Amino acid sequence: MSTSQLGQVRSLSDSEELPPSKRPRTDATEPQISASTSTNGAQVIAISEADILKQKAAERRDRKRENRRKKQLAKLPDPCSAEDVLWKDIQVVLGQDAVNSATEVGSEFDSPFKHQEEVELEVKILGSNGDGIAVSTGSSKPWAVVVPLALPNERVRARIYRHARLHSFGDLLEVITPNNELRDSSLIRCKYFGTCGGCQYQMLSYETQLDFKRNVVVKAFKNYSNLSDEEMPPILSTVPSPLKYEYRTKLTPHFEAPPKDIRKNMKPISEKPDWLKIGFNRVGTQKVMDIEECPIATPVVNAQMAATREEVVTKVHTYKKGVSLLFRESLDTSVNIDDDSVDRLSDAFNKQICVTDPKSLVRERVGDWIFEYNAGSFFQNNNSVLLPLTDYVRNAIFPPDAPTPSTLTHLVDTYCGAGLFGIVLSPSFQKVAGIELSQDSIRFATRNAELNKISKDKISFRAGNAGEIFAVVQDFPADQTAVLIDPPRKGCDEFFIKQLLEFGPKTIVYVSCNVHTQARDVGQIMEAGRTGKAKKYTLDSVRGFDLFPQTAHVESVAVLTRVS
Ligand SMILES: C[S@@+](CC[C@H](N)C(=O)[O-])C[C@H]1O[C@@H](n2cnc3c(N)ncnc32)[C@H](O)[C@@H]1O
């Protein structure tokens, strides 16, 4: 028995005299060593077999945990996800060499910054999500920091609050050196700008906003389409929204239920207490902040929001859960427009109201077209841009300057919602077929076709998965058919693209609220033709549309033509 082993035993039992907080940490994975005195007085250390087995099991558990951790670290974000789009920007800022070296040595999660540390940063680029992406002026370690509301070439101070792979997130505390070519605070129209997470670009001129959005489209096709330079048309300038403010026809602010301790003894109140916040999430958080008005929403929506806020105060003691409110602008639905004697374009018909029940009927005009839908279901939120958008799509399908007249006669409107594109474009086609997953939206699409006096022989809508439409439109001549695609953010699935390519329409117009998945899908359509697996398409044009001024969102329209 060596003295050092004895010493270890001694110090263990000594430590038991200490208060728990001062005792050396005994790892649960260590076998318990017990000291006893033998009959001849010598001390014996006994490690039981059970303890050894326990230790081995614990080591196995540790190894498994470590492997899981390594796998998790190695896992990159899902392609086209918001995290992936950001990760691509981070790599540009840090440079591929720095990213590769950090990955090789496994230091890509070792942030040089502490939680809540205040750091000085230089902003390098504006990320596709609208946040500035900066590097530290003090640390030599390649590490990026994402700072909302910071602009390229600015020096800023930020407080770090979260870490991820080779980057951290920080709250903007101060713009030390502003970029006066871009930043113009006199343009800001909202008192909550900078704290509310809704808008990112109010300090930019509108032209700059459109330029930044074009750049997002350029980057998306570079990162996700896999198209060669020869296959890529120049990305056109972003089409502006006629209204830059007061355009949002829908808002969905929310509020939390009263905290439990307050709810217990709560009586009806008439003045809004401090803890009640009715509004939108604070920038970079899931915490609601109080918003009395939103200047990007229409005046009718703002007026209703003010009235509902007062109502919520008087009823708040009755809520046990948080609530999402809905404000949706509508034309006055009490006017019976099925009656042919009604002049739908008269002032009486055009009175705006705001509905708050998701099941309520909403009525909306797009030019001289009338649409109805349920307040809770999908319809575009910026009415002012819908005529320019549908005109653009029509001109893409029937280019006014084409040397020969178009032969297109049929339109397939996939992901058609309440029938916006199919109905507005219907005069240019002999036949239109639409498909949409929501039964409710299809009920309205059919009603909208009737309201707009389009015959059932000409236009039809069906509920179903978008890819299923191609089996239904077998009688549509592919050479004379245009397919419009307007999917949700996640884009099209494999089944849809396979069916689309088997059908092989002459023209494809792909409208999207997520240019990254759009670029991926367009890339897949083009690749299938390039590799001889399907008919070949050229990408004629890609253009951003600004459906959401003052925010970083961009809609995009890509036009493809079959060449073989
Ligand atoms: C961006 S919206 C476009 C709606 C319509 N084109 C418009 O502009 O009003 C996408 C629509 O796709 C529908 N959708 C989602 N997944 C679908 C699927 N797998 N098949 C068909 N429609 C789907 C949604 O219900 C939603 O109405």
TrEMBL record:
What positions constitute the catalytic site? C513
Source species, domain of life: Eukaryota
Q: Where does S-adenosyl-L-methionine bind?
A: Q380, Y415, E436, D486
Which UniProt keywords are present, listed alphabetically? Methyltransferase, S-adenosyl-L-methionine, Transferase
InterPro entries in the record, alphabetically?
MeTrfase_TrmA_AS, MeTrfase_TrmA_CS, NA-bd_OB-fold, SAM-dependent_MTases_sf, TRAM_dom, tRNA_(uracil-5-)_MeTrfase, U5_MeTrfase_fam
Q: Is S-adenosyl-L-methionine set as a keyword in this record?
A: yes
Q: Which organism is it from?
A: Coprinopsis cinerea (strain Okayama-7 / 130 / ATCC MYA-4618 / FGSC 9003) (Inky cap fungus)
Q: Residues in domain TRAM?
A: 112-174
List where this protein forms a coiled coil. none
What's the protein name?
Answer: tRNA methyltransferase
Q: Which family does it belong to?
A: Belongs to the class I-like SAM-binding methyltransferase superfamily. RNA M5U methyltransferase family.
PROSITE patterns documented for this protein = SAM_MT_RNA_M5U, SAM_MT_RNA_M5U_2, TRAM, TRMA_1, TRMA_2
Q: Show the segment(s) annotated as Disordered.
A: 1-44, 56-75
Q: Where is the composition biased (Polar residues)?
A: 1-12, 29-42
Among the GO molecular function terms of this UniProt record, one is:
tRNA (uracil(54)-C5)-methyltransferase activity, S-adenosyl methionine-dependent
Q: Name one GO biological process term.
A: tRNA processing
Biased composition, class Basic and acidic residues, residue ranges: 56-65
